[in-house]
Amino acid sequence: MDKQLVTGDEQEPVFSRAVAVAVATAGVGAAVAFGLPLTDAQQTAVIAVVAAVAPLVLAWWARRHVNSPASTAKVLDRR
């Protein structure tokens, strides 16, 4: 891979964003476990929202930091 196409030190942009989303999701669970005052219904709702929204956020966030092979080829051909 051409180092000029990599932003900063991000060799694995999708993985690094997946870790961030996983940590945020685990943080919600830990907050509840350590006494965040939520009812069972509220906990279920929060977990459902996180389960539905987290993959969408990850996909959107990661997609902004990767290029398709066709896009990369076009950039390299313009040089």
Concise description?
It is built from 3 helices and no strands. With 79 residues, it is mainly α.
Describe this structure in words.
It is built from 3 helices and no strands. It has one domain. The chain is mainly alpha-helical. The relative contact order is 0.14. The longest helix is centred in the middle third of the chain and has 24 residues, at 40-63. The protein has helices at residues 13-33, 40-63, 69-77. Mean pLDDT is 77; it is low at 1-9. Helix 1 (13-33) runs antiparallel to helix 2 (40-63). It is elongated.
Keywords:
79 residues, 68% helix, mainly alpha
Considering DSSP H and I runs of 4 or more, what fraction of the residues is helical?
Answer: 55-70%
Strand tally? 0
What structural class do you assign from the helix and strand content?
A: mainly alpha
| Overall radius of gyration | 18 Å
Low-confidence parts:
1-9
**Outline type:** elongated
Overall residue-averaged pLDDT value: 77
Strand content: under 5%
